[in-house]
Fold this protein.
Amino acid sequence: MQDVYQYIEDHKEQYIEWLQDLCRIPSVAAQNRGMQEAADHVLNDLAEKINGETQLVSTSGFPVVYGKVPGTKEKTLSFYNHYDVQPEDPIELWEHPPFEAEIQDGTMYSRGAADNKGNLMARIAAVHAYQQVRGGLPLNIKFIVEGEEEIGSINLDEFSDNHADLIQADGCIWEFGYRNADGRQQVSLGVKGMTYVELVCKGANTDLHSANAAVIENPAWRLVWALNTLKDENEHVKIEGFYDRVQSLSPEDERAVRDLIYSEKEMLKQLDLPSFLLDLEGKSLKERLIFAPTCTICGIESGYTGKGAKTVLPSEARVKLDFRLVPDQDPYEILQALRKHLDNHGFEDIEINEMAMEKPGKTPYNDPLSETVIAATKKISNLEPTVMPMSPGTGPMHVLCQKHGIPSVSVGVGNFQSNNHAPNENIQIEDYIDGIKLIATVIEDYAKI
Amino acid sequence: MQDVYQYIEDHKEQYIEWLQDLCRIPSVAAQNRGMQEAADHVLNDLAEKINGETQLVSTSGFPVVYGKVPGTKEKTLSFYNHYDVQPEDPIELWEHPPFEAEIQDGTMYSRGAADNKGNLMARIAAVHAYQQVRGGLPLNIKFIVEGEEEIGSINLDEFSDNHADLIQADGCIWEFGYRNADGRQQVSLGVKGMTYVELVCKGANTDLHSANAAVIENPAWRLVWALNTLKDENEHVKIEGFYDRVQSLSPEDERAVRDLIYSEKEMLKQLDLPSFLLDLEGKSLKERLIFAPTCTICGIESGYTGKGAKTVLPSEARVKLDFRLVPDQDPYEILQALRKHLDNHGFEDIEINEMAMEKPGKTPYNDPLSETVIAATKKISNLEPTVMPMSPGTGPMHVLCQKHGIPSVSVGVGNFQSNNHAPNENIQIEDYIDGIKLIATVIEDYAKI
């Protein structure tokens, strides 16, 4: 593969520019900004840069960009990515403009650089380099690039049901991956599921002077009390049945947790924290990170939140809650259990708005794709990779892979300080170039199995 | 007084325009908008319209507008008002622009119309009418018009300490008053005190992807748990010592509660609510409204609160809390008790930002000023007034009145649907004109005692 690696090195400036061009499109699905432009841009890249047979597959939401590049074998490797990004706020905390893809000291700063445009473009670049050097591909490649990952892939079920033929593959490289604080590449064999909801509690039909609080119900207090029934200070989720379907760890899972290198000190230092949640450390920390389902307040808002003191009794309170689920929890069962829980605790009036639902997904350690990717990382880096049985993150892996019997492995170009979903999202240029080489290696090696 | 009343009727258009001119200045203290303009405007009105000896008294914050109009007796009646208003947000809920003072069907809509510019201008107009008809005043009048009432009168302590001579009076008409749903004028003999704070809970030094929530503390959850320790679902404040200084009701207070007409059905209908807090009604509802201290979430914010689903682990959570206090609770003692309570419950890390502090204030029923004002309302309206031993609202009454041995009685031109501190704040033009006549009557009658 030295010929391909050398080509990648010789053309790195071009591959960096390709990524910058894509990052400069502010494709925020939650706010419907720049989405058409980003879809068209990716479609053109697949068609023009790597001769893909492309189509824009419409859904009830933003379209899926699809591209197939034929190879010399019947075998097919697919790539799942997304062209949408998270909103960039709080904008004031960015040290570089979020959509200019500035490079400073070997780091590219942009919303989407790590999640997920850097990974997508590394894969396009890998296919390009392989084609340029070898004249063609040793297997078929499919790109499935959706536009709603950051809003919960709300129409991917529909895509999955209607386009099983487009999806079908022998293996799928999932969207993301990171280099850890210790420099090791992280390879993930699964993702957590998700139930993402907004709870809304309503009071009087207008905000009132807070002098009325002695006799008028305050929806912010009701929401606080309702939330308090959901999770206790020991982080135990109190919804009845929440843990019922949680699988116990297999011996392989146990081994993976034991072998996992998680750089506790570096992480705490980076985040300026004295300790982890519940003073976790070592094995229990790693086990929780990978295998614990969660219940997270992603956002809460009620009343006056501006400058100074305003004495207001709010008319409404809202909270966004994200439950991360592990096998075999089911997002719809959890939603039902939440409704029942609120009803049982006297909060029948609190509305639940369903916002995103995903089943967890997991691929075995001994799958040929898992083995190929793990081996490939060792060819690019001289450090052993960190293999995560399941990523703490979420994605529509089940609906695109496990549901169709396709194994999936996640690897990518981010790093432990990439600030996904946060200000100053970034990737290291070196990781991007290594990521291109890694995918080229996977293409070569997976074709041989 | 028919001569004065007739003059007021004949000049009502002029008095309405005076109020509109003042309402059109968006004097939002919390946001430092239009404050100098409003202070100058009030100063000019006092000097030019009623020949006041005026001065702009500087403080560490926005200045106090002071005006004295000499009368034929040594007796002095003072008026306490404020030229600042609450922020107008949420702006999208206003049906009339908040700073244009539009009149529709006998109602003027404006931020500040009820709280407190309508009352201030009614008093200026009353002095003006009395002067025009009688050639002079029967007692000295003082206007004390501050600019920081809506941000907790944070520099009025300083004014009170430095300018006891300006403040000194036989009685003070306090800033506000309302006509209830049953048409009765409400007269208040006191105000609740206040401890207004912001609690801040911090987590990691940046927002994170919520996948990290399995191992990184979430400040929004910590704030929810901390709030849950402050007040239970029965509205009992759980801070140790919170109720220690609360006075039991005097026989006069009991009588006032019994006689108080509170239009429960109208209030519920107006607010589109099925019931009051804790299903309160009748005597217990009224007693709680007037005599119960409160603990109110005025605003809470953390993480992503925009459109759509963002999977973020917030780095910070904030809540604005307003405690309304009754005699003899002390705002600084409550602040200390809150700090101690949080520490005792393991929330030492939660910061408390002190935002406004007021002692409660109360004047006896049998004070000559109370008796004068109550009698005057009966001359303007054919309905008995509702006498509130204490308003559920708050103001710096103690620091301007009780501390200087000055009785104070609150009466004004608002109504039960005035939407103070809320969108579509308004007053009825008829109440404004009656309010001018009422103050003219108080000037006449109080001079005779």
Remarks:
- Chain A touches chain B through 88 residues (CB under 8 Å).
- Chain A has two domains: 2-189+363-448, 193-246+293-358.
- The longest strand of chain A covers residues 190-202.
